[in-house]
Specification:
Alpha-Beta Plaits; TIM Barrel; 10 helices; about 35% helix; homotetramer
């Protein structure tokens, strides 16, 4: 941590800061300039977290040096993590594709989706049983019934299954049926829920919040990991900006940024990022080229009659075609698919 | 709802849309231009919510006309709502000030805070017992112990008390101790939690999410109200933008916008909006002038030793002085304080 | 400037940085921690501006300490500046109101506007002769003819006049007719134009760019001032965010932030900030309460037939009423109006 | 254009709107619902541009249907445009790479850069002679001297050259020396400058403004094209968002969006988008995969001593290596390189 004093801060003010730092058991290093004095603080920065040094007289601002997340931090864990889901390795050589409908609507719709995405080459089936919807009057999901269909689809196809959880009750139910628990964008800072999934031993897909910074996102992962569950997969799904030509703005740079900051695997969801199915193929290729470990893509057997997010869903034919187009990109990026 | 056809959409495509709308039991009105045809749809718009009309051939886009929230909508409930908390009326003539520490840290700290804010003129004591913190290693709150201190502070001072809830368990505990349940910014779209507080009969203070639109915010209120709890108070607390000179950007225009769109009362939290106590007084005056029904201000007996958000907290003297300065502004705005 | 080394940077890397800093004639101060070493650099920071120290091996990042603007900086010029425009003092005791139509449309429309805003109490007439419009097919302004009407309106009413300039040619013309040159939001970083108005001795109203930071805005002022023209007035006019309920988001906190960072006066334009005339009165009061030195408000004799920005313009009656409502707020804020 | 009346608007209000539309020579189509009436307006929408219909009694809002840009609009010009620069075709089969230093610093530095980027395979040399810098105290460019070096580099290497222009004077000079005039992000809505380059017959590279919408960007292209110069190349270079891990946020979705909305070619500048050279290779691959017509990449013979943007510049070896890595991606995307 660096403490920057105000220009022309008085000597007693500087001495008080030095004294304050010493009392916390830390070592201050002073650099005195003609106008500004700065004080470097060396040692366990966590001692300073709640210290409010910026309120001491003469202090201008505080500049933190170390990131607040540890378990998710590549500095302390330089080897890339591989999250195993049944026989699938996420974060390894394979390009992992999670596909399926936004919402589980019926047994038939889900099984149809499962067979279709399996046939095209996806390894994991997505499908929402607990739907967080902006309006209370929109379709909210089949809940446990939906989970049961997910498990059935797994039996039939051998696909692993991922499902969003939105409450403790949903976590309790979902651990009995699914292979990956998903934390949705709106719950990325629902810290209670993060702790709950952190207490399970089920892999967690952590979507980025609509306006979460990279740092907040990694701290959300840290919440899960600090409870003991190290199997976290990050998922970039677009952030909120002023631009309205797409539903959200896909922050594709987040992939190389994350590859520098964390050992956790990262996938991308171009369906939610853009909200328009016509853009999904081009962006899927870009995500593989940029180094993502996988993709999450919405596929619905009949998008025109989907109960949720129809306009961003591919139909089975389009998804099949897309997977074909993605194969050479995966190969070029050194990924098995 | 308005359906805009693509330029030069073909006649059979237009006919199919008309047919589709008819089949939903709605009445289409066509306006045919030289390049573009538009189709107005009259009737119960909710029938169209999951219809995916935009996926029909030849459709360019859909423009919704009616807002998706009803109970919170001023159009259907033109009289301003007054939320009663003990003998305090929020949304009426009074300027209501909620003040206190970010976090309840100890019995003594809370009681000191309570007496200080009472003396200055605040009517409601704020204090966090369940703290949502970005890092899992930061102070997380005293939980039920904190709630007990809140209740004790109420006994001692007669102040009403408001406390954030972050989980179903917290709601269960809080309803026994506090007068207002607060939904924090990070949980504004935690729909499960919204439903939980909606099932109680305790007034709810609903903070705006960091990147929530006005429309999403009102839909969040609708979640609470649709469960039966109509006592919702909105709280603007700054939104996330590119500007970093303040912690968030106070969207002061949200106050007149909300006064036009909803009958619910709205207060403003300038402490969280800016993150800097030096800016709180000027902004508090502005909020009264713009028409807010109240303010939420962080006050700590000893900001330099606060466990959370010290830099944005006023000390008791500064808060006392601020309240004095606010009185003529309240009077000018036609508010009792 | 502070140089933060990467965790576990090697000794020779640290030595190279120290050496590099020495060679620039600056003095490094090293603080060595268990994981991270930081190096404070004292002296003339401008020597480091183009040094690219962050590219030396082992360097993690650079944290600048001093702001890059000097002439606009309150630290070096603590006394608030007063910009004199004829007999009006902007930044002093008076609340200064600039009002008038978005665009000068005709001699008659401008003179009508001038008389109306004069009667209500405004001291300065605004009116655009060079209009920057998003579409090339929208009305672009009367150019020099418009300037002549501005000068005529001044003769008739005694109001000072302000007009936007969008090119060197416009500056050349405008200096002959108007009292204040306005730099619009879209040109805030048109550095060539900033230098041009900096070479005149005419006061400059510098609007904030749509996505300019406080720091960039002050650097834009610095461009003008560094050419010799110290008469700069800042104008907050809303920033671009994700929220669409208002045309832009009025960043009202910019007023107290600027009062802390610069000695230059600052006014607010609530008409452009919101784009909706219904919100102008409430926000105008808020701006006075927050400490703004003045307001810029769009007034048109017949908003329904305005060629530009009609929906955000007040008509003369509404403006007259608003000025009456503002008087007690001005008085309360210690302003003459 | 669609006119949406307020809920329960009165009959005479509706009649007045119909009358108003008729008087403009346009044809209104009314759709009357139980709560809301909407009026579709068919015909030449430009007649409505300055009509302020939203100010008529009972009108709630206006929904425009047609885009305001025509010449840049794919609807009216469905064939992709190819911009020819010497023997290079931008927007055709080739992947076009523009590379070189942020600023021209000296004859030697530029010639070195030119030979390096030529050797790696770039077709166009970039280099700034007029630098728009945030601070007036930063290096501002060599101006016409820099342009002469650009021309010399072209003679020596056969590369085409592109250079930013920031004023009419710069345009006048640049047309004598360079093959492409660049409009930088900060000048994207400097409409005077857009008209100036529109009057030349030199191809224009139009960078997206830091917070420009897709629509505003296309309208800026329209300014240039409406003056007669149809040779416009778009360049996505990152937008401003709340995220600070990268300098800007690369809006990669802008590429497929533009391919849908306009016939103009589009390239991407990953160097400015991220500000960090480590991220340039991964993003370059992604941009090719997503369908961009080319790339603009900063290359400097000695980034550590660059006078501008050193940290985002590749050195010649890294650029050579990158071009090698890009070849198979270009091939896969069906591009010659």
């Amino acid at each position: 941590m660096i403490i920057v004093m105000k220009p022309h801060a008085k000597e007693p003010q500087i001495q008080e800061v030095l004294h304050f730092v010493h009392n916390l058991g830390l070592e201050p290093h002073m650099s005195k300039g003609t106008t500004v004095t700065i004080i470097g603080v060396i040692g366990d920065e966590s001692k300073l977290v709640n210290s409010n040094i910026e309120l001491l007289q003469g202090v201008d601002k505080i500049v933190p040096i170390l990131e607040s997340y540890k378990l998710a931090n590549k500095q302390f864990n330089p080897t890339p993590s591989i999250v195993k889901v049944r026989d699938i390795e996420i974060g390894g050589d394979a390009l992992v594709i999670m596909a399926g409908p936004c919402a589980v609507e019926s047994r038939e719709q889900l099984l149809q989706s499962a067979h279709a995405v399996k046939a095209a080459g996806a390894q994991i089936l997505r499908g929402g049983a607990y739907k967080p919807r902006t309006s209370p009057y929109a379709f909210q999901g089949l809940e446990e019934e939906g989970l049961r269909y997910m498990a059935e689809a797994r039996e039939e196809t051998g696909l692993a299954v991922v499902c969003e959880v939105t409450s403790s009750r949903a976590v309790e139910a979902a651990v009995k049926y699914v292979d990956i628990l998903q934390i949705g964008a709106r719950n990325m800072q629902n810290f209670h829920l993060l702790r709950e999934v952190g207490k399970t031993n089920v892999p967690v897909l952590l979507k980025r919040g609509l306006c979460a910074t990279i740092e907040e996102w990694l701290n959300a992962a840290e919440y899960i990991m600090s409870e003991g569950n190290k199997n976290v997969i990050l998922c970039e799904r677009g952030i909120r900006t002023y631009e309205t030509a797409t539903r959200n703005t896909l922050d594709i740079s987040a992939v190389p940024v994350m590859k520098m900051k964390t050992h956790l695997p990262i996938i991308v969801d171009p369906s939610h990022a853009t909200g328009v199915r016509a853009f999904v193929p081009a962006l899927s290729k870009a995500c593989i080229a940029v180094g993502a470990d996988g993709l999450m893509i919405e596929v619905h057997p009949d998008p025109a009659h989907a109960l949720s997010d129809g306009p961003q869903s591919l139909d089975p034919e389009a998804f099949m075609e897309l997977c074909q187009e993605l194969r050479p990109y995966a190969k070029l990026a050194g990924r098995k698919f």
